[in-house]
Write a structure and sequence with these properties.
Blueprint (H helix, E strand, L loop, with lengths): L3 E7 L4 E6 L5 H13 L6 H10 L5 E3 L6 E2 L12 E2 L8 E7 L3 E8 L2 E9 L13
Parallel strand pairs: 1-6
Antiparallel strand pairs: 1-2, 2-5, 3-4, 6-7, 7-8
Length: about 130
C-alpha cells in the first residue's frame, strides 16, 4: 500500500502542487524534501519549487535523491494534473508538503479541510520525522 502526498506551494486560496505516490509520510517524503532543500537545491526555494513542481507537472512516483521517478518524463508520460486543497484528497493524498519561504509545512486532512501538522523552519534543526507518521 502506498502513502500518497502532494508537493505544493501556498496560494491565496490554499495550495497548488503535484502528486507524489510512494512513501509520502513525514519520515519518507518530509525527510527527503528537507534534505534536498539543503543539498540538491542549496537552500534555493524558488529553484526547488521549479524543479519539483513546475518541471514535473504530472507528478512523481517517488522523489528519491538524484534517482527520483516522475510521471511526465517516463516511457509513457502521464498528463499534467494540478492538485489543490479542493482535489488533493480525491488523488488519495494523505499529506501535503508546502514549500514556503521560511518553512516546510506539513498538512494532513481532517474532514473537509487541511490542518497544519507541522511547520519546520528551514533555518532550524532537522526534526525527528517519525513523530508525525500516523
Amino acid at each position: 500500500m502506498s502513502t500518497r502526498g502532494t508537493v505544493a506551494r501556498k496560494t491565496d486560496e490554499g495550495f497548488t502542487g503535484v502528486y507524489h505516490h510512494f512513501d509520502a509520510y513525514p519520515s519518507g517524503l518530509g525527510r527527503e524534501l528537507w534534505g534536498q532543500y539543503f543539498t540538491n537545491y542549496e537552500s534555493d526555494l524558488e529553484t526547488m519549487q521549479k524543479g519539483l513542481i513546475d518541471d514535473h507537472p504530472a507528478g512523481w512516483s517517488t522523489i528519491d535523491g538524484d534517482s527520483g521517478r516522475c510521471y511526465c518524463h517516463s516511457r509513457t508520460p502521464e498528463s499534467p494534473a494540478v492538485l489543490t486543497q479542493e482535489n488533493a484528497r480525491s488523488y488519495g493524498s494523505e499529506y501535503v508538503y508546502l514549500l514556503e519561504d521560511s518553512a516546510l509545512v506539513i498538512l494532513s486532512p481532517s474532514h473537509s479541510k487541511w490542518l497544519e501538522l507541522a511547520r519546520i523552519p528551514w533555518d532550524g534543526n532537522e526534526p525527528d520525522w517519525d513523530q508525525w507518521d500516523s
